[in-house]
Write a structure and sequence with these properties.
2 copies of one chain form a homodimer.
Chain A: H1 5-8, H2 14-21, E1 28-29, H3 42-55, H4 57-60, H5 70-82, E2 90-95, H6 97-109, E3 115-120, H7 124-132, E4 136-143, E5 146-147, H8 149-158, E6 161-166, H9 180-193, E7 196-200, E8 225-230, E9 242-247, H10 248-262, H11 267-279, H12 282-307, E10 313-314, E11 322-326, H13 333-342, E12 345-346, E13 348-349, E14 363-367, H14 373-388
Parallel strand pairs in A: 1-12, 3-4, 3-6, 6-7, 7-8
Antiparallel strand pairs in A: 2-9, 4-5, 8-9, 10-11, 11-14, 13-14
Chain lengths: 390, 390
């Protein structure tokens, strides 16, 4: 075939393909990973964009710099500095969503055949990006307190790991949060076995239970941690705004890759996000999101307790937008999905979240940020019935 | 080093680095490739974005599909169909600017070591993308009537060419347009030697002299031509909107690469572009652009005739936004640039537009879309004096 090897092993994201079918308004979807539109500050953004385009069109509609619109970049930099996620030797770029922060990092660092350790299960968009650079992927199980650091060390002993890709906080798809002890262990291992860590943190600000746990980036002393952030879950997903923090030498390469990918992120959306954050309080806005998602998470947990078959189990996230269910071994959740969709309920089958497309065949990812409490209750009831029929 | 090989050979785009220095409002810049902000329909877009965000925020601010916002995609599809650039076996994706259309095409098709033929000189963003996939680059001279097809055939005889990257109409950086005969010859060669052609056409609608020449895509019978289009020069550069047309099997891979790169192009900017095109006439808007750029091109040509040293020559574009000057062999234009910037005039040195970073050392690219007629006259006079001093 004439295609590049890198794409021949990529299938389209099953989640995104499904997303199209879910246009049917009858379907209760736990499948996506979308924020609630009830939280979009649309009136404010309407006024803001109109003012930007009236007062400053020569900036908003013209080419900008690859690093990002300077006021937004400085705003995010000071937020990251305050959170301990931007050290003196680090730099920050605004990206076209969190996905691009991952992709540019992998593009800058991975050579064909390099070993990249990933969580099993993990985020399909991250996994596909790694695959597209022809890396050798090693999957490390996610335990109740996060990635299995012992299994990771076993891999590191036998194989030169280049990067570990991890979502330590409210992980996609499990909702699990890595313990502080494990985060410290990860940094130790990175030093000992000389690898980088890509800490993907799109959900970190959405904590509604328990104590905040320090990011690995905030404890990183020698620039081994690259940090990816996103506005998708705290402001708007469709605006495609994210950021990446990395040591200056790595960031230089990431900026060059950004130029090659799309020159720069649209200026208008960056200006609008900046204006929103400077006129209003992003923290207050996030607080509203946390409250809503807490209510919805609790609604889903109650429904699962009430309706879910007793031989099924599920995680109890302290934040974020996903939880992860384990069904009896005999159930193939890709098959289950077809039956569920007939009953107008959708979820993400576990195998979709695995680098081998096979493991976690009896698991499912459930999203609770998009459907409201009524739909959550109704959808979980239907899903429980579909499972019970198996 | 720990960087991926693909980025170790990329330097940041000299043009984009320069762009930052040009913030000095005193500088007359012929260096960029930006559209005139006088043409931005900012009042209309201000009303449009405010209405979109008030009436349809749940679409504008939410995740969209990787193929693009459907109404915009259909609008561009019908435009492309009318222009003969979208055949029955083709498909179209909305991209984050024309640059992403190039990058996703190369990502989908180029394996390490594949031979890619490019024009000498060519567009730095295209060249860097090709380099980032570790292709073997073969440079083919651009003659007065476009790429040297005989030189291309010589290369094809000795080497398996995978893709030819070309900007046949109002080429960047030369402003030269490929003749119809050569376009047909290119298609013959593509068939004979089994290669693809990436026809990059961001300037094609900006013709102000001479007769329209059929695109290669419109004469393509077996899906060998991939077509990249852009809104950057006809609506807004900062909105980062472009598109790519390719045979369905190739487009499938491009869509997957898009998912991995940035999931989708921002919905708000796509909706705004669509609303503008459906409420107003894009063709009328483009006609205004053509008129302005014709005036500015003529202003630059007159100034060059009046002031430029007699041992220098320059191209006379029939459209687009660039022309290309040849100075005496002894002049290194990278050095010349430093002197010109001291006198507050900037341009792009020729070597920047070459895949080997060396050829065209005595050439310069001049942009006339951004500076107004007064600045063009003044800047060319100063530049001519700087050259004469050499």
């Amino acid at each position: 075939m004439f295609f590049a090897d890198r794409v021949s092993k990529l299938h389209g994201s099953a989640i995104r393909e499904m997303f199209k079918l879910l246009a049917d308004p009858q379907i209760i979807s736990f499948a996506g990973g979308a924020p609630s539109p009830a939280l979009f500050p649309s009136e404010q953004l309407a006024d803001i964009t109109a003012q930007i385009l009236k007062n400053n069109p020569a900036v908003a509609l013209q080419y900008g710099i690859s690093e990002g619109y300077t006021p937004l970049r400085e705003f995010v930099q000071s937020r990251m500095k305050a959170a301990g996620n931007l050290g003196d030797s680090d730099n920050l770029i605004i990206t076209s969503g969190g996905q691009q922060a991952l992709d540019l990092t992998f593009k800058s660092l991975i050579n064909e055949g390099d070993t990249v350790a990933v969580e099993s299960p993990s985020f399909i968009g991250g996994l596909n990006s790694i695959k597209s650079y022809n890396a050798k992927i090693k999957a490390v199980p996610v335990l109740d307190d996060g990635l299995d650091t012992e299994a990771l060390e076993e891999i590191a002993k036998n194989d030169k790991i280049k990067i570990v890709y991890t979502i330590p906080t409210f992980q996609n798809p499990t909702g699990i949060t890595m313990s502080l002890a494990k985060r410290k262990k990860m940094l130790e291992l990175a030093e000992k076995y000389d690898f980088f860590i890509l800490e993907d943190n799109p959900y970190g600000e959405l904590r509604y239970n328990g104590e905040e746990i320090a990011t690995m980036k905030s404890m990183d002393t020698d620039g081994r941690v690259i940090y990816a952030g996103s506005f998708s879950k705290i402001l708007s997903a469709g605006m495609r705004l994210g950021w990446c923090v990395a040591r200056k030498d790595i960031m230089e390469k990431i900026i060059i890759c950004k130029q090659v990918s799309d020159v720069h992120t649209p200026v208008l959306t960056q200006m609008a996000a900046y204006e929103f954050c400077s006129r209003y309080s992003l923290d207050e806005h996030i607080a509203k999101s946390r409250e809503l998602y807490k209510t919805r998470c609790n609604a889903m947990l109650s429904a699962l307790e009430r309706y879910f078959p007793k031989d099924c189990s599920f995680t109890r996230p302290d934040g974020g937008i996903f939880l992860w269910c384990t069904l009896p071994e005999r159930i193939d959740t890709q098959e289950l999905l077809k039956k569920a969709v007939q009953k107008k309920v959708a979820f993400v089958p576990g195998a979709t979240c695995e680098s081998d497309d096979k493991s976690s065949a009896n698991k499912i990812r459930l999203n609770y940020s998009l459907p409201d409490e009524g739909k959550i209750e109704k959808g979980i009831k239907i899903l429980s019935e579909v499972i019970a029929e198996q």
